Amino acid sequence: MHSNISYPLKNKDMKTSEIIKEIERLPIRKRMYVIEKTIHAIGKQEDKNLMTKAANALSVDYNSDKELTAFTTLDYDAFYEAR
Q1: pLDDT (tens digit, 9 = 90+) per residue, 64-79?
Q2: DSSP string for 12-57
């Protein structure tokens, strides 16, 4: 299906089918580990993509709406000294 896609691994390009064959050779526990790490990496990248999209979508508002940034100029030293 995706065998024409290559991935650089250890200075060698591997096609998807080759990667799958290598994973299939691993013991089940190691296969599960690879799957878990892959899913985690995908989720992490997706979270980063969503946060980037949200920040870009809101940047115009934060740059133009003074009500959104009104409290960013507060002096934090005075806040902590008020104990």
Answers
A1: 877 777 766 666 666 5
A2: EEEEHHHHHHHHHHS-HHHHHHHHHHHHHHHHHHHHHHHHHHHHHH
